[in-house]
């Protein structure tokens, strides 16, 4: 692998992207970028705006607050962190409330443009994990992977991370799949891997083999 190279890892919710990206980056000794965390940070800001309760999300006002605040994605190899105005808010980004509003926020073109700009500021090499990393943000990336798994397997994985019952997680996930559809397409030159029935170790080994080939 050359030092200026980018690896993209895309896929639907709970397809194992984050865990695999983290392990892959560690194996290669390079950082990884969790683009979903930036969308989650934008969702947190949208939720904290009192207007949201009454009028829904107003894109112009949200974009203004994204520009006004200092929002930093720290590509820590052990787990990306998000600092908002210097404060680590990572823990606040993985809640049921954020899960339910983040797709709406991620559909706003201005928000996508804001996230993509932040990601492109980062010097390679890195593993970029999210939705349209291979197709839209880093079309020049040499290695592109797209992970899938059945909704049932993904819901089971997510149930381990949320204080919610399996059935509720599955319903939320199916709804989010529909909302995220437009930005969830694989790049035409991505290698697609169905991880249903595979362990994280097997997925990472499969990807490393392709990179080393
Ligand atoms: O990967 P995640 O579940 O943390 O992503 C959170 C949300 O952000 C998800 O609903 C899809 C959206 N997202 C996106 O649209 N584009 C990305 N590159 C990453 C995430």
Q: What do you see in this structure?
A:
It is globular and about 50 Å long. A hairpin with a 2-residue loop joins strand 4 (81-84) and strand 5. The chain is 50% helix and 15% strand. With 213 residues, it is of the alpha/beta class. The structure holds 2'-deoxycytidine-5'-monophosphate (DC).
What secondary-structure arrangement, pairings included, does this model have?
Elements: E1 6-10, H1 17-28, E2 32-34, H2 35-48, H3 51-55, H4 59-68, E3 71-74, E4 81-84, E5 87-88, H5 96-106, H6 109-120, E6 126-130, H7 133-137, E7 143-148, H8 151-159, H9 166-180, E8 191-194, H10 200-212
Parallel strand pairs: 1-6, 1-7, 2-6, 7-8
Antiparallel strand pairs: 3-4, 4-5
Helix pairs in contact: 1-10, 2-5, 2-6, 5-9, 8-9
This protein binds 2'-deoxycytidine-5'-monophosphate.
Number of helical segments with 4 or more residues:
10
Let me know the CATH homologous superfamily.
P-loop containing nucleotide triphosphate hydrolases
**Describe the biggest sheet?**
5 strands, parallel
Mean pLDDT: 92
Order of helical and strand elements? EHEHHHEEEHHEHEHHEH
- Note poorly predicted spans: none
Architecture in CATH? 3-Layer(aba) Sandwich
Major sheet strand order: 2-6-1-7-8
Span between termini: 10 Å
Morphology call = globular
Classify the fold: give the CATH topology.
Rossmann fold
Counting helices, strands and paired strands, the structural category is: alpha/beta
- Using only C-alpha atoms, the radius of gyration works out to 17 Å
Helix content: 40-55%
- What count of domains describes the coordinates? 1
The set of bound ligands, ions and cofactors reads: 2'-deoxycytidine-5'-monophosphate
Beta-sheet strand percentage?
15-25%
CATH class: Alpha Beta
Strand tally, please? Answer: 8
């Amino acid at each position: 692998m050359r030092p200026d190279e980018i690896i993209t890892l895309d896929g639907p919710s709970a397809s194992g992207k984050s865990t695999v990206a983290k392990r892959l980056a560690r194996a290669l000794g390079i950082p990884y970028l969790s683009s979903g965390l930036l969308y989650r940070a934008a969702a947190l800001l949208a939720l904290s705006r009192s207007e949201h309760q009454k009028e829904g999300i107003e894109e112009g006002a949200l974009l203004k607050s994204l520009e006004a605040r200092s929002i930093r994605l720290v590509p820590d190899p052990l787990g990306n962190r998000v600092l908002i105005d210097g404060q680590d808010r990572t823990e606040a980004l993985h809640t049921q409330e954020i899960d339910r509003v983040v797709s709406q926020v991620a559909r706003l073109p201005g928000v996508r443009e804001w996230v993509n700009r932040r990601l492109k500021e980062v010097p390679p090499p890195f593993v970029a994990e999210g939705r349209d990393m291979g197709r839209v943000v880093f079309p020049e990336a040499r290695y592109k992977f797209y992970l899938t798994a059945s909704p049932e397997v993904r819901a089971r994985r997510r149930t381990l991370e949320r204080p919610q019952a399996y059935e509720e997680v599955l319903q939320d996930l199916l709804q989010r799949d529909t909302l995220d559809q437009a930005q969830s397409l694989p790049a035409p030159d991505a290698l697609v891997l169905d991880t249903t029935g595979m362990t994280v170790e097997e997925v990472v080994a499969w990807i490393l083999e392709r990179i080393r080939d």
